[in-house]
Amino acid sequence: MADQKTPQPEEFQDPLENYDPEIYTDPLERALAEQQVSAIQHQPYASVSPETTVAEAVARLSEMQVACLLVEEEGKLVGVFSDRDALDKVSLEFNDIKDHPVRDAMTSDPIYVYEHDSAAAALSVMAVSGYRHVPVVDIDLNLVGIVSPQRVTAFLQQYLAEPAE
Fold first, then answer.
1. Which CATH number characterizes residue 146's domain?
2. What is the C-alpha to C-alpha distance for residues 71 and 24, in angstroms, rounded to an integer?
3. What would the mean pLDDT of 87-93 be, rounded to a whole number?
4. Which of 30, 53, 76, 147 could make an SS bond with 24 (beta carbons 3.0 to 4.6 A apart)?
5. Which of 45, 53, 17, 32 is nearest to 119 (CA)?
6. What is the domain count for the chain?
7. Is the pLDDT score of 6 beyond 80?
8. C-alpha distances in angstroms, 133 versus 30, 42, 96, 162?
9. Residues of the domain holding 72
10. Comparing C-alpha atoms, which of 71, 74, 80, 70 is closest to residue 142?
């Protein structure tokens, strides 16, 4: 290599030394950037084990009037069984698949957010990936809840009502 000069300690300049924090003029923008997913209501949530039959899962969706069930095993998220899965994967062959475990019809390896991610991350997953419901996990990947459109709307309304600074 060419002669590279090793910087001397007195020459080092910390790039964050002159960092100015972001200034937000809109409370909603601030909330999306600074509030964590945990600030959005993410409980209660409905879950089943992967061994639950498809018929039981469909019945539970209907009885609870929810759009999706989180599929968890030993506290860990393993999938999502949604009304969309019921329509796309089950409806036309219900009699053939109703006694199968829900793991055969669920969406495996779903996209999720961490409870400490920014609130904007949850909205981004919804918008970019096209999922209406996004599971929420903790740092150890334990399932802690779900974010839904209604819950996000309630979160956003809190900040839309605030006057700008």
1. 3.10.580.10
2. 39
3. 93
4. 30
5. 32
6. 1
7. no
8. 23, 10, 28, 26
9. 26-160
10. 74
